[in-house]
Amino acid sequence: MNWKEVKTEEDWHEMRTICSSFQFAMHEFSDYEDWLFSRAFAVVYEDNSAFSVLFHGQNSKVYFGCLGLLDSSDAKRFIQKLCVMVREKCGPVELHGPINGNSWYSYRLPIDHSESLFVGDPTCKGFSHHDFIDNGFEVAQSYETYLQKDLSGVEPIESSRLMIKYHSLEELQSMLPVLYDVSIEAFKHAAYFTDMPKDLYIDRYASLLPFGKLDLMPYVWHENGQLMAYSFCYNGFEKGDLVLKTLASRNNRLSAGAGRLMASEIISKARSMGYSRIWHALMHSNNVSKIMSGKFKGEPYKKYAVYRKKLY
């Protein structure tokens, strides 16, 4: 088992060369700026067979992510050795993962369906739920994806103080600073959240917007002219599939009802455009989004987890 600390951009380039077999696990960190923001500090690897990145987490925790494994039969052994090495190098810490640094990047491991259901849906990458449980980990956070196959009976909701608007790509590019403010307010209490610098958020989100289904992405504005909430949707793998990835709302009384307003708008409009299924993607098991998904006829389809283990 090898340990390499990554402190400089030169170290980062060297690490990417050493771990070239696992570039698929490193796709989110093709830019050094992302690597720095993720607070990555070391790489653990076994020649060309297994790989993981370690990150400084919240409250002195250590996160592991960017998992790569060429032979799934080695998973339990690699996790065991990873724990031993982290304890040896970092002292008594709590180890969490898989998390690629924070919730702006990929995290979660599927518990059941191993295949990717849509773009952005995590796969097992050679590791399974039992590989972690058998190594003394427990589930720290649970997530679910629901599938809505019945889009009937949902109609747009009217509000006297909130209004739905749609925006062009050019308009959205100019709105990115405002979207940043809404995002920070909406997600700041989520597990593994870290404040992202505004310029990095704008760069990342600007690159994602062209992939969004803009005519199924309503934005909710208050009568006072303030943006209250936004959504992000895109087409699924199958014809007729829509992925409802994000419903983000400000955390104040003025935004009350914005999530339901967006959801009913998306579902009714998707039905009119010929969509037959909607993936309600990657919701925290205790989040209001999951409750709302159930009310809109979403049904549980896939479960995910983030694990933790105290290395004391």
How would you describe the overall organization of this protein?
Helix content is 29%, strand content 29%. The chain has helices at residues 9-18, 32-37, 75-90, 129-133, 169-187, 198-208, 258-272, 288-295, and strands at residues 2-5, 40-46, 50-56, 62-69, 93-97, 109-110, 138-148, 162-165, 219-222, 227-235, 241-249, 277-284, 298-311. Strand 10 and strand 11 (241-249) form a beta hairpin. The model has no long low-confidence stretch (mean pLDDT 93).
Short description:
The chain is 29% helix and 29% strand.
Given the structure, what is the number of helices? 8
Cα Rg? 20 Å
Strand percentage: 25-35%
Please mark out the parts with pLDDT under 50 across 5 or more consecutive residues, or reply none: none
Structural class: alpha+beta
Number of strands: 13
Question: Helical amount among residues, as a percent range?
Answer: 25-40%
Shape, principal axes of CA atoms = globular
